[in-house]
Amino acid sequence: MRSLIDILDFTPEEINELIDTANDIIAYPDKYCDRCKRKKLATLFFEPSTRTRLSFEAAMMELGGNVLGFSEAQSSSSAKGESVADTAKTVSCYADIIAMRHPKEGAPLVAAMNASIPVINAGDGGHNHPTQTLTDLLTISREVGRLSDFTIGFCGDLKFGRTVHSLITALSRYAGIKVILISPEELKLPSYVRKDVLDKNAIPYVETSSLESVMGELDVLYMTRVQRERFFNEEDYLRLKDSYILTPEKLESAKERLCIMHPLPRVNEISTAIDSDPRAAYFRQVNYGKYIRMALILKLLSEAGRI
Ligand code: CP
Fold first, then answer.
1. Which pTM value belongs to this model?
2. Distance of CA 256 to CAs 136, 141, 272, 277, 282, Å?
3. pLDDT band of 242, cuts 50, 70, 90
């Protein structure tokens, strides 16, 4: 049974096909409005979410299907001690496809190993967030016009930011990508991502703590939130939370065609004064997330022989 747990589960060709389908859905939504009629998506969210859960639900509804599920662990039988494996087996009796978010790294993989329907990782701990990565790739392809030959700066919490880890991994398969890692010392990219992804694929990268010093080089700026929920103590979070705040002044040296992205939610790291700047792509990015998830649901249900 085909699932999506890690972005590398899909080849670059498959990702290109998903992007093509998403673009076709954006252009011709009526063509897709009953492709998942009588099919059910289960959203099993053991951690908070606005965009991922609601975009999955909107995606299935726009495909003519239905949704069921829960949005917090406490309202499911995991609060009574049920395992992820048993939850996956149970939900396989009710739904055609699962989207799961879980605070424990690897939980969606355990679900996929036990479910008899496709499982989509909707974010596992500080590990991976492959559907955000698909969203990000669609955003870059639409906003920058290509998925190769650009410089991308990742700024903020590169240690705990699972969207950063997944996107760097995905971009390692495209040509001409230069990565600039902008973070405080304590929130640097984990060495396993640096070694296993950047070094292994000979991706050129630099590390700096100064956003201003590299702003003019960037084609894409990927801002991130400092992940309060992953810190061991509140004092460290409070010290680091406002390390980077993007303001109009800081954009003075930026390229005219810079694409500013953020997986959201935003806390304080992008001034709302930037929202009206045409380079601010983060709410368009939110919208693209629904279309790429529609394409993903279609692919996995089709491969499972359910549509
Ligand atoms: N980008 C993202 O995963 O947002 P949510 O946590 O709101 O789903």
1. 0.95
2. 20, 17, 19, 11, 17
3. confident
